[in-house]
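Before a colleague's protein record goes any further, I have to sign it off. Alongside the sequence sits a line of tokens, each denoting a local backbone shape. I want your independent view on whether this chain really folds as the tokens say. Where you disagree with what is written, explain briefly why. This is what I was given:
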Amino acid sequence: MKKTSTRLADGRELIYYDSRDDVVREAADRRPLDPTVTTSEVRRDPLLGDSVAIASHRQGRTYHPPADECPLCPSEGERLSEIPDSSYDVVVFENRFPSLAGDSGRCEVVCFTSDHDKSFADLTEEQAGLVLDAWTDRTAELSHLDSVEQVFCFENRGAEIGVTLGHPHGQIYAYPFTTPRTALMLRNAAEHKEQTGGRNLFADVVEKEVADGSRVVIDGEHWVAFVPYAAHWPYEVHLYPKRQVPDLLALDEDARTEFPKIYLELLRRFDRIFGADQPVTPYIAAWHQAPFGSLDEFEGVNRDDFALHLELFTIRRTSGKLKFLAGSESGMSVFINDVPPETAAERLREVASE
């Protein structure tokens, strides 16, 4: 992998990740952009104890532009985009309309391919491996920023999820705090460790799922994917490396090599859940990594007690119908799932590639 860092016209950082070492990236951003101005602010909710990012400048962000005006496609002639060069493999840049900025963290965009009409599932294993390298590199770089405690790599896919740009891309949020979901996992891990005489919660969950087998979707040599026993979403898969590690940086070469094959197969199965004649499946793919900040508030656990894993889920519950977060989910955080996890797992096994 070759990494080339440059600056856009308004001062934001952009990084090219290339699979070939002989690629030269010298194209300049020719757009007449003013310096980026953000109004991001993090406010803490005293009742729930969580944090909310207030980012009013995002109201003016790019919204469903036509394909020939896509800001994530390479620049071509006088059609100038966020990517100055005429081609790229993988590129990462600071978001022009970030939810988090400055002392409140950082937001980046990850473009998986220059091909506007592809999706992550269409990538080759080599291309998917390069995305994994980019995620890992950005996690390493962002973890060193003073304002960052947790790095979250994710992809929103589909208009139903709220995606406003059709180009295949994901994002990285670098939070100035440990997120509520991760904090809850850490508290449960600490309680489990104390109650079981030192056993690891994540390891026990994976071991139980593998032993049961009814919800296992893919069992690879170095990764295992399963629908969790208490899945919140209609079709939800958790993907774990079999050697427990706290973050992407700690993955060994064997796991990194096998990941593209396993992950691409999962994404392709998701697109076949509802039938070949149905639109592509909207989903969220979310990497869960251990925080890089202090874990003193989670007494009894450290970073090595956390387990890196990816959670992939769709809000579509059946053909033409979405799972809405209504009263119980939005008002009380109590999910109601219409699809039994065992049924979801069976369907995801049925649509395996031949």
